[in-house]
Amino acid sequence: MSLDTATAAPKKTRKSTLLELSGVSVSFDGFKAINNLSFQIGEPEMRAIIGPNGAGKTTFMDIITGKTKPDEGRVLWGDDGISLLGLSESRIARAGVGRKFQKPTVFEAQTVRENLAMALKAPRGPFDVLFHKKTRAGAEKIEALAAQIGLLEQLPRIAGELSHGQKQWLEIGMLLAQEPRLLLVDEPAAGMTPAEREKTTEMLVEAAKTRAVVVVEHDMEFVRRLNCRVTVLNEGSVLAEGSIDHVTSDPQVIEVYLGR
Ligand SMILES: Nc1ncnc2c1ncn2[C@@H]1O[C@H](COP(=O)(O)OP(=O)(O)OP(=O)(O)O)[C@@H](O)[C@H]1O
């Protein structure tokens, strides 16, 4: 070992943890939808979540965004490990958690440009008032975002005229405009053509270079192309975690999910 290597500061080899859930449980009418769940994601990182219907995937995301408060456990966020449990949904959104639901929710009567402009100007948070003022920097940012989501040519179009896939990308762009540190994406590939799926993969992989991205998806080919660590949920807990090859060869995963 050279002197230089020996005296150099230790290299940061691990991603820092952005979000950590530990021992989280939540029951609905006595039914444990989430059962002693522990989960960690770093920044940046891409993570896929798979699991059978009713495994708790939606509830897991609802807990992160503050829509559902757990009965037990901890949900810690950011460099200082602050608890998200006492925070409202809009406060959590402002802290940097963005969520993309399965159904696209863009402003159909506005153009693609207007949709992105509103998202850029909007204070972070689902119910905050939208207001906007045109600036040169804003126009450049809109174009950069549109390029990122493959909609540069579509900027003047009314969002309602876009294809399903394009609407999904527009919404991803609107979320990225808010610069979330964690982006939660629910079944992005649903209803998309193979070409659209491929573009969506590229977009998410790119987004995950600078932030944490959690993708809940049933389409295993799509998950494989994300080329990331996979967490398998079942009955509200983590059943398996690791590479796609690791989890898809796990006999328990095959039994509860893949072998259906
Ligand atoms: N508000 C609620 N009240 C009662 N039960 C609920 C509620 N929300 C979820 N559940 C139940 O908790 C379990 C987990 O549901 P969840 O929607 O989180 O699963 P999921 O993995 O997202 O399923 P899917 O793949 O079908 O979307 C299910 O059995 C569901 O019926």
TrEMBL record:
One of its GO terms (molecular function) is ATP binding. Keywords: ATP-binding, Nucleotide-binding, Transport. InterPro entries: AAA+_ATPase (IPR003593), ABC_AA/LPS_Transport (IPR051120), ABC_transporter-like_ATP-bd (IPR003439), ABC_transptr_urea_ATP-bd_UrtD (IPR017781), BCA_ABC_TP_C (IPR032823), P-loop_NTPase (IPR027417). Gene3D superfamilies: P-loop containing nucleotide triphosphate hydrolases. CDD domains: ABC_Mj1267_LivG_branched. Transmembrane segments: none annotated. Residues 19-260 form the ABC transporter domain. PANTHER family: CONSERVED COMPONENT OF ABC TRANSPORTER FOR NATURAL AMINO ACIDS-RELATED, HIGH-AFFINITY BRANCHED-CHAIN AMINO ACID TRANSPORT ATP-BINDING PROTEIN. This is Urea ABC transporter ATP-binding protein UrtD. It comes from Ponticoccus alexandrii.
